[in-house]
Amino acid sequence: MQRFAAVAAGLDYKQCLCDSWILGMYLRFLTTALLITLVVSVAAAEPIPICDGHIHFNAQVREHLHPTDALRRLDEAGITCAIVSSTPNDGTERLHALAPDRIVPMLRPYRTAEDRYTWFRDPATIEYLRHGLAHFDYRGIGEFHVFGAQAETPVVREMVRIAVSRQMPLHAHTNVTGITSLLEQATSVPVIWAHAGFDTPVAELHALLDAHDNLYLELSFREGIAPDGRLAPAWRELFIAHRRRCLVGTDTYIPSRWTELSALADAARAWLTQLPPGVATDIAHANAQRVFARGGNAGAAP
Ligand SMILES: [Zn+2]
Fold it and tell me: What is the pLDDT of residues 199-220, one digit of tens each?
């Protein structure tokens, strides 16, 4: 039939067959290209996984959020692992019990919320920390608050000695004087600077990162990273120069931060995706995982 039609149309039969073969190949090529495009766009649309460097599960939050629901919120936000601390510390332990592979438990030096203002000059802090470390497998100490000369008290010095002896990272909410003191006391363990100093000039952060191999920046509440959604050039430069030293964080210190968790994680993704993919991956999750890797690698960044 095909031959008859071709002859009737005055066309060469072989030529006709060849044309339909080329057309078939072309269609197959188009279909394959379309499928590849679809697969690539689906992969690109996958949210970048985050290992959150700053999650709290405080008593005030637990009144509203069961640990199971907290884990569900982490799932919904694409937060695959989290560095967690709480006041009191049993909130962290409860979350960890439900997801030991995803929750990295940190020990705070606070028995109550009020301890935040006095712990660094209260000798009872040391006993409390020793007891916490003896009864639970904490992976670091923090987040703790300490400013300026408070980082030099005998209590803080002893706490840092304990962390160093156990090769445990520290997570400090502090200012430039405080972080400098902690970095000098704890040269062999990572010192994670919560909020990357809030508004400390980026040039000063650069200098501190250059001077201290054990400094890491945790980026929750940090000002100026992506004003109006566009990654600031100074931050881009810092992230690329120190790609192994920065960690994303959301800081869920009150119930509303848990409610906003997905939006907070997506806000971080919005500037992470403006970085080269490998740099984004480091900051989104690989650095946090490296800092808290079991069996070494807890020291300064490579
Ligand atoms: Zn903080």
Answer: 999 999 999 999 999 999 999 9
Residue 298: inside a domain, yes or no? no
How far does the centroid of ligand 1 lie from the alpha carbon of residue 180, in Å? Answer: 17
Tell how far the Cα of 140 is from the centroid of ligand 1, in angstroms: 16
CA of 173 to the centre of ligand 1 (A): 5
d(CA 225, CA 271) in angstroms, rounded, equals: 8
Same domain, 135 and 57: yes
* 21 & 74 share domain: no
173 and 241: one domain?
yes
Closest Cα partner for 94 from 61, 57, 64?
57
198: helix, strand or coil: coil
Residue spans of alpha helices (H) in the chain: 2-8, 13-45, 59-62, 67-76, 90-98, 124-135, 154-165, 176-185, 202-211, 233-241, 255-259, 261-272, 277-281, 287-291
Q: How far apart are the CA of 143 and the centre of ligand 1, in A?
A: 7
Residue 29 banded pLDDT, cuts 50, 70, 90: low
Q: Considering its fold, how many domains does the chain have in total?
A: 2
In a domain, residue 220? The reply is yes
Domain that holds residue 15: 2-42
12 and 136 in a single domain? The answer is no
Partners of residue 104 on adjacent β-strands: 83
Dist CA 96 CA 71 (whole Å) = 10
